[in-house]
Amino acid sequence: MTSLSTIARRLSVVVCSVLLMVGTFFLSAAPASAASHDIAMGGAKGLVFEPASLTIASGDTVNFAVGQLPPHNVVFESVPGGDKDLAAKLSHKGLEGNGASFSIDFAGAPAGDYSFFCMPHRGAGMVGKITVQ
Ligand SMILES: [Cu+2]
């Protein structure tokens, strides 16, 4: 016959295991502070990004949605430290039409200014800047 103390010992092992699993889950969960922001590509004023400048935190996401006068894209030309690989990684060079949207993830992005433009409409002044704090 199993004694009460054996049952208590087995129960404590189970409780500890559950606590460990729950604790691991919370440690691995993404930080709750990551925010998402919206930029329209082509707004009420025509060939512009709205807003044309935006301040975010590292780890935030920026959602770009096609607005007026497509097609549009987002090409980063100047990023902190002149990191060409980072600029290429963040860029969305594919031209997007009506109803399209995409997100750019600034996870691990160093602080500083990120300037970008829309390739077809750069000459019309369709440029923007994201500042990572
Ligand atoms: Cu454009």
UniProtKB/TrEMBL annotation:
Q: Name one GO cellular component term.
A: membrane
Q: What keywords are assigned to this protein?
A: Copper, Electron transport, Membrane, Metal-binding, Signal, Transport
One example of the protein's molecular function in GO is: copper ion binding
Cofactors needed by this protein, per the record, are: Cu(2+)
Give the cofactor binding note.
The crystal structure with reduced Cu(1+) has also been determined.
Binding positions (Cu cation) = 72, 118, 121, 126
Q: Where in the cell is it found?
A: Membrane
* Leader peptide range in chain numbering: 1-34
Q: Which domain of life is it from?
A: Bacteria
Record keywords: Transport included?
yes
Q: Sorted alphabetically, which Pfam families does this protein's record hold?
A: Copper-bind
Is Oxidoreductase one of the keywords UniProt gives this record? no
Provide the Blue (type 1) copper domain boundaries.
43-133
What the entry lists under NCBIfam families is as follows: cyanin_plasto (TIGR02656)
PANTHER family attached to this UniProt entry: PLASTOCYANIN MAJOR ISOFORM, CHLOROPLASTIC-RELATED
* Protein name listed in UniProt: Plastocyanin
Q: Which organism is it from?
A: Romeriopsis navalis LEGE 11480
